[in-house]
Task: structure prediction
Amino acid sequence: MPNILAAVLVLLFSAAAFSAPGKIDSATIEQTIGAKGTYSGKENVFKVSSPRADIQAQVDGWAMPPFMGLTSYAAFTPTKGNQLMLMGDTVLLQDEVNPAMDAAFASGLEVTALHNHFFFDQPKVYFMHIGGTGDARKLATGVKNVWDRIKEVRAANKEAADRFAGDPIPAKSSISAVPLEKILGTQGQASNGMFKAVWGLTARMHGVRFGKEMGLNTWAAFAGSDENAVVDGDFAMHENELQSVLRTMRKEGVNVVAIHSHMSSEQPRILFMHYWGRGKAADLAQSLHNVLAAQRAAGEGKMAHGG
Result:
């Protein structure tokens, strides 16, 4: 009996030790990012904030101070072993979004959302949520790289850009549909020199199965000319496909402009990513073909692992 009791006590002690909250190497985080942070003992979270005092933003005709919602942050909390979990929100002007996203991916971080918080803001302000798991130095370095990339963009151009680089898009479109259908592997619709392709998914919501025609779809619309085209659209995807889609989209040089949901209570959960690309129509179609392939591979990988 004493042996059994001793064994139980050992197990309880071990379980308590295993579940005890870990420590956060706040010194390394502050040193790496180059900014002081604050610690919450109640939640065991260390947070570093970076007010965007360089942004002279007007919201609803009012000069908004950083305190009112123009502050980037990165929060760290312990997870398994000596690892930390990172969550953060990054305040960005439009021309900073994709450079900051590239810096996040290059540093091994995830991008989980991209959206606006205001109406009638000048210049327009976006918010990019980031995440990741790793040791303190790795995660802090990723945050620093993102914030440094933003500073580089502003150092090069004090005023925010009001359009993407490239020649103006032709007012009258003349896109050749057949080559794009061949590259994308699907038939599309043509209208007034423009071309659109649509791919559908299916899910269930409130006991009802729905799909492509209810808005659960990926689409790509091309305008301009074959040599000077623009493509915009929306990618619908499962959560496990998001990072592959985003990384491939940026690798292909296509701009990501929003990441969010379109519905609630759907099963499985679906995320949507909006994009805008410039270049030759055939090159843009090939880029989207590559993104679609990356999405399929991510989905098949989940299935292979029993997801």
Q: What stands out?
A: Residues 4-20, 303-307 have pLDDT under 50 and may be disordered. The CA atoms of residues 198 and 219 lie 4 Å apart. The longest strand covers residues 84-93. The helical segments are 2-19, 26-33, 97-106, 136-156, 177-184, 242-251, 281-304.
